[in-house]
Design brief:
- This protein has helices at 2-20, 25-56, 58-67, 72-81, 91-110, 115-122, 156-172, 179-200, 205-236, 279-284; strands spanning 141-142, 146-147.
- The chain is mainly alpha-helical.
- It has one domain.
- It has a two-stranded antiparallel ribbon with strand order 1-2.
- The longest helix is centred in the first third of the chain and has 32 residues, at 25-56.
């Protein structure tokens, strides 16, 4: 069922793009990744807005957890009233995961160089697509140096994966006022790029190219949707990177100038006028 619904369609679409684009597999990966990004864009936007909403509700959630810690049912009722949904920000991501895993499997399958795997690949090709079977095995050379079906012995692709993943995470990471969450985000910002870079040391270059293109398109998508995301941040009271803090309800917190209290009257001494007697001197006499 997994192959029938996810991997097989992606495998055949990749080979069809490979045929249309002059049998250039790198271009096929780029175009296919762009199509996937466009298809999942509504889910990505919904996920980001859901995460903003959950971040804005954190102070109220902590207050309710403390207030109703002995009454879980009442806690759930109160959380529903404020719109808390524990899977609201994660559900779109969970929907995207099969697509991403299927895409990895399709790229890995079409880049096979093993004769047994080539025979297995033939079983998953659509017979109604014109001459699709004649494209196998595909030309996996890239720039005359790289073999897309094998790991990169020059380490260029793993390094680019680490760099693009780092900047993608850095730009798109949601700001938070929770110290524990901020520490976790900081740790993930470094761990994820290193993890993917290590993974690419033993992974075909074609998968690395997909990940690099996906990161670059993700950054482009972030800047294209940034105005809409900034409005959502203001709506839910989430800080906009590079701007003043935002209070709940969307009002910006503006620092008020400190007012200096006037000195006590008893310490104010009148300055005597020139040529006129001082009233205090007359009183002393």
């Amino acid at each position: 069922m997994w192959d029938l619904l996810i991997v097989n369609p992606m495998t055949n679409i990749l080979l069809l793009l490979y045929s249309i684009l002059g049998q250039n597999y790198v271009l096929a990966i780029i175009v296919f990744t762009l199509l996937i990004k466009l298809l999942t864009l509504p889910l990505t936007v919904k996920q980001q807005i859901g995460m903003m909403k959950m971040s804005a509700l954190q102070p109220q959630i902590k207050e309710m957890q403390e207030k109703y810690k002995n009454d879980p049912r009442k806690m759930q009722e109160e959380m529903r009233k404020i719109g808390y949904n524990p899977v609201g920000g994660c559900l779109p991501m969970l929907i995207q995961m099969p697509i991403l895993i299927g895409l990895f499997s399709a790229i890995n399958r079409t880049l096979t160089v093993d004769p047994k795997n080539l025979i297995e690949l033939g079983k998953h090709l659509y017979s109604f697509l014109p001459n699709i079977s004649s494209l196998v095995p595909i030309d996996s050379t890239f720039l005359g140096v790289f073999d897309l079906g094998r790991p990169d012995r020059f380490l260029v692709i793993p390094i680019l994966v680490v760099v693009t993943t780092f900047f993608s995470n850095k730009v798109m990471m949601q700001p938070t006022t929770d110290p524990q969450m901020a520490q976790t985000n900081q740790m993930m910002q470094w761990m994820m790029p290193m993890m993917f870079g290590f993974f690419m040391l033993s992974t075909p270059i074609g998968l690395g190219i997909y990940w690099i293109v996906s990161n670059i398109l993700g950054l482009l998508q972030y800047y294209l949707t940034k105005p809409m995301m900034d409005k959502a941040r203001v709506q839910y009271g989430v800080p906009v990177p590079g701007s003043a803090p935002v209070a709940s309800g969307g009002a910006k917190l503006v620092a008020q100038p400190a007012q200096t209290a006037p000195p006590p009257k008893s310490k104010i001494r009148s300055k005597p006028s020139l040529g006129k007697p001082n009233p205090d001197d007359k009183a002393k006499k």
